[in-house]
Amino acid sequence: MRRPLIAGNWKLNGLQSAAVTLAAAIREGVTRDSRTEVLVCPPFTAIGVVSAALKDTGIAVGGQDLHWQDSGAFTGEVSGAMLADLGCRYVIVGHSERRQFFGETDEWVGKKLRAAQAAGLEPIVCVGERLEEREGNVTEAVIGRQLDGALAGLSKEQMSKLTVAYEPVWAIGTGKVATPSQAQEVHAFIRARLGTLSDGATAREVRILYGGSVNPENIRGLMEQTDVNGALVGGASLKADSFLKIVRC
Ligand code: PEP
Which of 27, 72, 142, 219 is the most buried (most CB within 10 A)? Predict the structure, then answer.
C-alpha cells in the first residue's frame, strides 16, 4: 500500500493568480518526507500555472474531469493527454457534482477512467450515495452498482492502479461528515467489492479516500480507520492553513 493521499478539489474556484498564491502557500507547508502524498486539483484554466509553481516539489497536480476521447469534435472537452501535457499526474472521475449536474453515468465513468489510464494518469473514481438512499438502506446497493458499472472488466493491473473516493453526497459541502465508523463500514464494503471484481490482493493495493466535509478537526478519526487511505477535500482545501492541517493529520 502506498502512502495515504490527501487531495484538494478546488472545483470552480480561483483565477490563475489566486491559484498560484494558494499553491505557493501549500508548497511552503509540505515537506518532501511528508507522511501523506499531497495532490491539488485546480480548475482547468489554472492547471498550467499551478504545475509550474509546484514543479519538483513532490506535490502532485490533477484535473477534475476529462473526456474519454483523445481528440476530435467535442466542443468544450479536455482529454487525458491534454491534462498530462500540463503536468497532471491524477484526474478525478465521476464526482457526484458531475453525476448530478452534468448527467454523468457509470458507463461514462468507466470510459473516462480507462482513458485516463491510457494517457498515463491515475484516476480517482468517486462513488457515493444520496441522503434518501442512505435513509432507504440502499447505500451498498448504490455503491455496488456504481463500482460494477464503471470497473467491471478492468485487468488486475488496471485495478491496482486505481484510487477510489467514497463521497457520500449528503456530506459534500454540507458540514455533515460521515462518522469514522460509517466511513469504515462503506470503505470495507468497497474493498470487498473490488476484490470480487479482481482479487483480494489487488483490492488491498487500492487506496480508498473519504470525501465529504473533511476538516482539520475530523480528519484524524477518519484516518484511524483501517480502510481509509486518505481524503478528498473540497472546501477546506481552498485555504492553505486548513489544507495543511489536514495534510499533517
Ligand atoms: C468534494 O467535493 O469532493 C468534497 C469532498 O467537498 P467538501 O470537502 O467541501 O465537502
Answer: 219
